[in-house]
Amino acid sequence: MGGSLAGALRNKCRTVIGVTRRTETIETALARGLIDRGTTDLPSGVCHSDVVILATPVRVILELLAEIGPYLPEGCLLMDLGSTKAQIVAAMARLPAHVQPLGGHPMCGREVSGIAEADPTLYVGHPFILTPLPRTSQDALAQGRALAEAVGARPLVIASERHDQLVATISHLPYLLACGLVATVQSKAADDPLVWEIAASGFRDTSRLAASNTTMMLDILLTNRQAILAALEACEAQLRHLAHLLEGGAEEDLRTALHLIRECRRDLPASPRPQV
To answer: Do residues 39 and 13 lie in contact, with contact meaning Cβ atoms separated by under 8 Å?
Structure first.
């Protein structure tokens, strides 16, 4: 996500500086033209910045927020790309007064990760959620909007708690469902390994999210537990209802339920296509 954002902003900012722990990551980012320069030293990398964006797993963002404040210049806009927002926004509230904090979450993640997977067109057409704090100035919020629009995204301002409840249902729940599906097939394969050989596109498409970075997803799950547990409970109720209809052989009722679900899915807006 960070490499993709850097690449998308490269020709829209005076200088894009990449800060990371590994020199190999910097070398790759430079070779791919994603950044102008890079460093492994956090203070020197951010001390003259107008905008700093934290693009790490959520719990690393929380650690950085406790450290980074004194290194930032007066009026610096500090954003993040974390997939959960309530804990991050709470930590941002403790930043020094000279920093302008703004939570962010672009809704365009993929199951792959790492600088080698960076794609500057990743954000095009997708919502870019912004979660301002009471202390966030209108100028800082406008700057965040402009940044989202500069990479082709659609800025959307909502409260952090509402964000976490919504993404628990449409992002974090699907990941756990994909994990449950893979675990179920894995259990079946213990008795009959042929199941893996005949797994076709339906299984592969439905289980794609289970290949997501485990560290990243653990951070998401553990920083949005209550909303995700509520989403799981609601999903279990829906599955129990379908199981009840199937068990009873209620064909017409099952047909009606499946048809309504099908129509709801068909009415979803089409996924945005990057314009290159």
So the answer is: no
R_g over Cα of the chain: 21
pLDDT digits (tens, 9 = 90+) for 167-206: 999 999 999 999 999 999 999 999 999 999 999 999 999 9
Rounded alpha-carbon distances, angstroms, from residue 271 to 1, 52, 107, 127, 168: 18, 29, 11, 11, 20
Yes or no: domain 2-158 corresponds to CATH 3.30.420.40:
no
Is residue 107 exposed (0-12), middle (13-18) or buried (19+ Cβ within 10 Å)?
middle
> So what's the pLDDT on residue 6?
94
Cα–Cα distances in angstroms (integers) from residue 270 to residues 64, 126, 145, in the given order: 36, 11, 23
Q: Which two tokens stand for residue 143?
A: 């700057």
> How far is the C-alpha of 57 from the C-alpha of 175, rounded, in Å?
16
Cα–Cα dist 223/87, whole Å? 7
List, for the chain, all residue ranges whose pLDDT scores fall below the cut of 70: 110-112, 271-276
Residues 6 or more apart whose CB falls under 8 angstroms from that of 81 comprise 1, 2, 5, 53, 54, 55, 104, 105, 106
CATH C-level class of 163-266? mainly alpha
Q: Where do the domains of the chain lie?
A: 2-158, 163-266
pTM, rounded to two decimals: 0.89
Q: Which is nearest to 91 in space by CA: 114, 67, 115?
A: 67
The token pair at 39 is 């460093």
pLDDT of residue 274: 43
CB 163 within 8 A of CB 132: no
- Check residue 112 and give its pLDDT: 67
| Tokens, residue 20 | 């990371």
